Amino acid sequence: MAPLDAKKVLARAVIFLGPPGAGKGTQAKLVAEKLRVPHLSTGDMLRENVGKGTELGRVAKPVMERGDLVPDDLILRMVEDRIARPDAANGFVFDGFPRTLAQAEALNRILERQDFGPPVVIFFRVADDILMRRLAGRRVCRVCSEIYNVYDRPPKVEGRCDLDGGELIQRDDDRAEVVRERLAAYNRQTKPLVEYYRSQGMLDEIDAAAGMAAVTDSVFGVLGQPKGRA
Ligand code: AP5
Q1: d(CA 117, CA 22)
Q2: 6: helix, coil or strand?
Q3: How confident is the model at residue 165, as a pLDDT?
């Protein structure tokens, strides 16, 4: 693993880019904890809004159930509010954002306004058959959202979270027919961001089909020496 200079990474936005089930959330939790910066998952924020029945949640719910993307303006307002909070002053790890070209371009402007440098962008590369298996096997804690997998990361006690004993549930959008829609939305709207960031010399790519520990090593290897920077 390349040595990690935390100072170089801390005041930056880190973006985990990749298809549904690539392992972005799993790794973002670990990395954010290690760097002591917030893990900002737009999916988790939206699910929280849906759970609380807020106005945003009411708009997002049917969109998420179809596997489509929530409109850019709603996402951008939510993200800008979140990163203006004091705990994000030293940086953050984005998981699931940006997801469209419009979001990426708006993020550049937001980062500039809030005095952040250019983001570190890590693309999680995984083949579709592996994604389908991971999403079919995923279970999450109803209480703390910890992520498990019945095949690759089972809990110690079946159906219960190791951390707080909460019930493990399957996400509504992990049903096979919704997963197909989510993959289609990814290919249509999010995959072009790979080329967008690559063409600016900002994309770091990792083999995210590897085991979880190997992927963690790859992520920290990139964070120690992101592309385009000394
Ligand atoms: P979101 O919650 O962001 O879902 P996603 O991007 O589709 O990603 P996932 O959470 O499904 O996968 P992941 O890559 O985090 O994988 P995980 O670590 O869990 O978005 C949900 C919805 O919200 C969207 O469809 C959209 O409607 C809306 N939305 C969110 N953000 C938006 C935005 N910016 N704009 C518009 N709409 C937005 O891992 C998956 C499974 O694999 C787990 O079971 C895990 O244990 C296992 N696993 C992980 N890594 C490995 C490994 N290396 N080996 C084996 N198993 C592994």
Answers
A1: 26
A2: helix
A3: 97
| 12 catalytic per annotation | no
pLDDT band (50, 70, 90) for residue 7:
very low
Cα pseudo-dihedral 32, 34, 35, 40, rounded to 10: 10
Q: What structural domains does the chain harbor?
A: 6-38+85-228 (3.40.50.300)
pLDDT per residue over 81-99, tens digit each?
A: 999 899 999 899 999 999 9
Q: Is 58 a catalytic residue?
A: no
193-212: average pLDDT? 97
Q: Which of 34, 171, 198, 227 is catalytic?
A: 171
Is 142 one of the catalytic residues? no
% residues pLDDT > 90 (the chain): 86
Give distance in angstroms: CA of 21 to centre of ligand 1: 5
* Ligand 1 within 6 A of CB of 46: yes
pLDDT above 90 (res 229): no
Is the CB of 224 within 6 Å of ligand 1?
Answer: no
Distance (Å) from CA 33 to ligand 1 centroid: 18
